[in-house]
Amino acid sequence: MQTRDISEVKQIWIDESVKDGIVARNVIERAAPGVAISFTDRPQEILNDFRKAGRIEDKHTLLVYKFPGKFLSSCPGSDGMVCCNYFVINFGYGCLYDCHYCFLQNYLNNPLITLFGNSDDLFAELGRRMQNQKFHFRVGTGETTDSLVLEPLSGMAELLVKHFAEIPNATLELKTKSSNVDTLLNLDHRGRTVVSWSINPPHIAEEIEVGTTTIDQRLEAARKVAKAGYRLAFHLDPVIHFEGWESAYHALIDRVFATVSPDSVAWISLGSFRYTPGLKTVMQSRFPEDWLTRGEMIQGPDGKYRYFKTIREEMYRSIREKIQSVDKRLFLYLCMETRRMWEDVFHFVPESAKNLDIGFEERRVYLDSLRPSGAGASR
């Protein structure tokens, strides 16, 4: 599998209004020799031009511009599904990777990758939302772009880690399929950042997570950040159903905990492969040989198609039992699943998102108790 990195970026556009900001300066200074860098005072026209082109498989142009909207929002859960009180920061759109199942294929309509250059506005918004709140925020960054794939170019994750180190009532999650962690290793993160990886059995990653790092590379990156004092998380999402799935996922879990300690893991999520009708059309058009959408699926109350309940329950139960055989204290949760599925798999149904949040908080407090006083990054 050929891993994609920032060498894929051949053209960079910088919005004049953010050219002196830290994100734009990082991009300009770190761009490879020969990359065309241009400045514009009409970034919306560039976006519109790429929308007209509409070829989402080309991922060679980056636009850094001033984002006019809100950066922080509640995780957009699905109707009829249990949510987990999660917040998301969007600091850009698009990704160098090309996972067959990625919802961005049906969400974005252009191949242009964007980064938001007005990071000061982002940090000011976080301050307004979180200051003087008794609630502990869990905030992730991997919804509309991979959190670390552009890190060697943008330095955005480094900025976020430093900022969240100063926020006592929040935990930042950087969700990725990359191994770009070197800029994070010597930061004084104060235990307030979780670095997480989406993982699947190696042959699945190689076949349908195009351009991503291998599972071994992801786990080696996890080992590095754990050594630097970060908490880890793993997302077995989407869990894929195929012949031999059980032994493959059990072997994957063995691989994870042969590399990192259970006491470095903040949480693990489980979620099955799912898609909207629109995404199915895009997937079958872009990947004619893809088998993910060829099996029998059922449409849920949120309009998304999933494996039949019996299949999902069997996979979740087996994987849960395997993980808990490693350490019963590990915190697991289901992503985008029904109350009935929670009952069948865990014999427990969160009464609300806040009720589920108690589990995250208990795990956080437990891991805090294991940290040496004042510990931050490894020295």
Characterize the structure shown:
With 379 residues, the protein is of the alpha/beta class. It has a single domain, classed as pyruvate-formate lyase- activating enzyme (Alpha-Beta Horseshoe). It contains 13 helices and 18 strands. The strands form 4 sheets. The protein has an 8-stranded mixed beta sheet with strand order 4-5-9-10-11-13-14-18. Helix 9 (245-259) runs parallel beside helix 11 and helix 11 crosses helix 12. The longest helix is centred in the last third of the chain and has 18 residues, at 309-326. It is globular, with a radius of gyration of 20 Å. The mean pLDDT is 92.
List the helices and strands and how they pair.
Layout: E1 11-15, H1 22-30, E2 36-40, H2 43-53, E3 61-65, E4 72-74, E5 87-89, E6 92-93, E7 98-99, H3 104-107, E8 113-116, H4 119-130, E9 137-140, H5 151-154, H6 156-164, E10 170-176, E11 193-198, H7 202-208, E12 209-210, H8 215-227, E13 231-239, H9 245-259, E14 265-272, E15 274-275, H10 277-286, E16 298-299, E17 305-306, H11 309-326, E18 332-334, H12 339-346, H13 353-370
Kindly summarize this structure in a few lines.
It contains 13 helices and 18 strands. It has helices at residues 22-30, 43-53, 104-107, 119-130, 151-154, 156-164, 202-208, 215-227, 245-259, 277-286, 309-326, 339-346, 353-370; strands at 11-15, 36-40, 61-65, 72-74, 87-89, 92-93, 98-99, 113-116, 137-140, 170-176, 193-198, 209-210, 231-239, 265-272, 274-275, 298-299, 305-306, 332-334.
